[in-house]
Amino acid sequence: MKMIKQKMLVIACTAGLALTMVSAHAEVDKRARNLTASCAACHGTNGISSGGMPVLAGLDKVYFVTQMKDFKSGARPATVMHHHVGGYTEEEFGKMAEYFAAQKR
Amino acid sequence: MSLDRRDFLKLTAAGVVIAAFPGCATTSGELVRKKGQRVVIVGGGFGGATAAKYLRLWGGDKLDVVLIERNAQFISCPMSNTVLGGTRTIKDLTRSYDTLKSKYGINLIQGEVTAVDTEQQKVMLAQGHISYDRLIIAPGVDFMFDQIEGLSAAIADESIPHAWKAGAQTVLLRKQLEAMPNGGVCAISIPKAPYRCPPGPYERACQVASYLKNNKPKSKVLILDANPDVTSKKGLFMAAWKELYPGMVEYRANAAVIQVNAAAKTAKTEFEDVKADVLNIIPPMKAGAVADMAGVVNVDKRWCSVDFLSYESKAHKNVHVIGDAISAALPKSGYTATSEAKICVAAVIELLQGQAPDQGPTIANTCYSMMSDTEAAHVAHMYRYDPEKKIMVASPSGGVSAKRSDVEGAMASYWLENILTDVLM
User: Fold this and answer.
1) Substitution target from A45, A89, A103 for chain B, most B beta carbons within 10 A
2) How confident is the model over B91-145, as pLDDT tens digits?
3) Would you say residue B279 lies in a domain?
């Protein structure tokens, strides 16, 4: 019983810590959130597409940044995306990648 | 945060009053008792509905969000030209506001705003008033019927539809096309830019031509454009008219319609009188009436100038304007309205907490035009705030499709479902 109580305390503390980290993280990420907001019309709220267009939520960060850079250079042919990515910096790709990677599908 | 008994009673009382008598005024005339900092949004189109949802998503549960909208349902203007072509019905484009209420706790009031008091920070409706800390006006456009002799709001409803707000007039225009004889003429008149949805009238010409080609192939579409040239996706539209509808679409530049005769079905330009079987006159536009009521129309007596970091009006503090009503180097599109709404909402939340808004807002915008039953082409631009010019500037990477395609036709449908979900669900 004592053991279970201790375990629960640990879980509670960890959960508490995790919550603090999430909220602190959310503070820092407003810029990333704002940058990605305009993607939603095609890719869904927080990158959760409701069909047809690629889901961006939960995408691996490195994969996301690589795709954006490849759209920008032309290495990956695009129908529409090359028109958009050309306007963003590599640093912004990184911020967007972090935001989308943190979203649950 | 702890509630004392009095606070609890107040909250409960407010809850009961709202639940029992929705829309019923309290003794002070305040329609819905204020629960903390309140943002009121007038207009539930693409911009306004997005603002409501994202105020809750980003502002949390504490924020009191009130959305005032005159219509019972949301009807998408984007893709509504396909109702004329016949691949969609108006029902396919109609959505409910229920999720904004049930999932996001938005206080939705269906009603007509009669006045805005920017001193007292109140929005007036026939049934009472709503106080605000910040007001977001998303009024869309109104039509300047007085610019065309013989035209009025009533005539547009009855016989010469503009169908530039999706709904009854879209259905009327479709019915007129169905009743038109084979060999008839449908004239579409386009106002001088700026107007809502730059490629829209040319897409409409494609959709009308598509219907006529399949059903009344001897008929014609006559475009009377007040502009000196096709204002959007020129090469793509010209190619579509020539290749898909040969001999059916006639385009006339610098042909502003200045007079109509509803009984005779004629339209007069500076140079000629045109007789048509179906007249689709899209009048010049200005910011929706609520903008005038709030005193925020300050560009050419038509549009509203805003700070592009917050969309706060340059005429009044604590009043923000988004969507087609603003004066900007941004397309007047539903998509752009949603992006402006998000920038505005993020700023409003910061400003309510005494913080500065994001100093580097960006917008992505893609507009698809359906050129046949299945094929579409797009124009896409990314815009970024320029801190020196204090305006949104397009990235040179923007542009249009190399050619129209079925792939983009499918993408246009995916876009519609995703944006409607982002706005309302």
Assistant:
1) A45
2) 999 999 999 999 999 999 999 999 999 999 999 999 999 999 999 999 999 999 9
3) yes
Which residues of B fall within a CB distance of 8 Å from A87?
362, 364, 382-384, 395, 397-398
Q: Are residues B37 and B89 in the same domain?
A: yes
| Residue B284 Cα to chain centre, angstroms | 14
- The CATH number linked to B92 is 3.50.50.60
Contact B382 A33 (CB under 8 A): no
For B343-368, write each residue's pLDDT tens digit.
Answer: 999 999 999 999 999 999 999 999 99
Please give the pLDDT value at position B103: 97
Residue B401 included in any domain: no
Q: How many other C-beta atoms are found inside a 10 Å radius of the C-beta of residue A55?
A: 16
Closest Cα in chain A, distance from residue B290 (Å): 26
**Nearest beta carbon to residue B342 from set A37, A42, A84:** A37
User: Is the same domain home to B161 and B228?
Assistant: yes
Torsion sign (Cα): B395, B401, B407, B413: positive
CATH number, domain A30-101: 1.10.760.10
Both tokens of A73, joined, read 């250079």
Confidence label for A27 from pLDDT (cuts 50, 70 and 90): low
Of B259, B289, B288, the closest CA to residue B274 belongs to: B259
Helix (H, G, I), strand (E, B) or coil at B341: helix
Q: Does one domain contain both B60 and B94? A: yes
Q: Which of B256, B283, B310 is the last residue of a domain?
A: B283
